[in-house]
Amino acid sequence: MKSRLIAASAALLLALAGTSGFAATKAEKQDELNKAAQSTLEKFYQSKPELEGEVKASPGYAVFTSYGLTFLLGGAGGGGVAKDNHSGKVTYMSMAQASAGPKIGIGSTEMLMVFKTPAAYKRFVDKGWEFGGAGAASAGAGKHKAGAGEGEKFVNDAMVYTYTKNGVEFGGEFAGTKFWKDKGLN
Predict the structure, then answer these.
(1) Which residues pair with 155 in a beta bridge?
(2) Helices then strands (H, E): number in the chain?
(3) Which of 1, 32, 37, 115 could form a disulfide bond with 121, CB atoms 3.0-4.6 angstroms apart?
């Protein structure tokens, strides 16, 4: 039973991952990530207009979209970009999350990280991040959200803003998230 759940979760994650993993060339994959990041930034700016000034004034920022499924045990994965505001350099990155706890959910989440120091941005891009988190009840579909699907917190000298893009989740969990450079896209 547990192996079937894991296999079904893996298949669903691949299905939810969209087309970015199936683009034909490196340039097409980069273009898809850049467009997704810009779209996500625009959504955050519409939701909270003061973020645009915060992002522009920061040493750097990162934008990610992840897709996941959880039923007591869960996982999520996705990709995004990190941009150094001083040099303009874009770094393509991947992310993965594993979780455990009394939580049930499926969906996609968008995340914006605004770094407060150049050292924090450099550390994130060069070494990646690992951190834990917790869940809450939320739901999202299109522009409609309910519950605590939006959030912000200060982590490793960065403000991290998230919201549930599409999907539902309920419960609490302990989750570990890892971010790293995508060697194939940089």
Answers:
(1) 158
(2) 4, 8
(3) 115
Alpha-carbon distance of 182 to 179, in angstroms, equals 9
- Cβ-based burial of 170 (10 A; exposed 0-12, middle 13-18, buried ≥19): middle
Between 76 and 118, whose confidence is greater? Answer: 118
- For residue 163, give both structure tokens: 């919201």
Ordered by start, the domain boundaries in the chain are 2-181
- The two tokens of residue 174 are 């302990």
For residue 90, the model assigns a pLDDT of 97
| C-alpha to C-alpha distance for 161 and 151, rounded to whole angstroms | 6
Instruction: Give the whole-angstrom CA distance, residue 153 versus residue 117.
Output: 16
**In this predicted structure, what is the pLDDT of residue 171?**
54
* The pLDDT value given to residue 35: 95
> Once rounded to an integer, what is the mean pLDDT over residues 125-136?
69
Q: What is the DSSP letter of 152?
A: E
Which one has a higher pLDDT value, 118 or 74?
118
Mean pLDDT of 88-103: 86
For residue 174, give the amino acid letter.
F
Cβ-contact 82, 125 below 8 angstroms: yes
For strands 138-141 and 144-147, give the pairing: antiparallel
Query: Is pLDDT at 127 greater than 80 in this prediction?
Result: yes
**Main-chain dihedrals φ then ψ at residue 127, nearest 5 degrees:** -115, -10
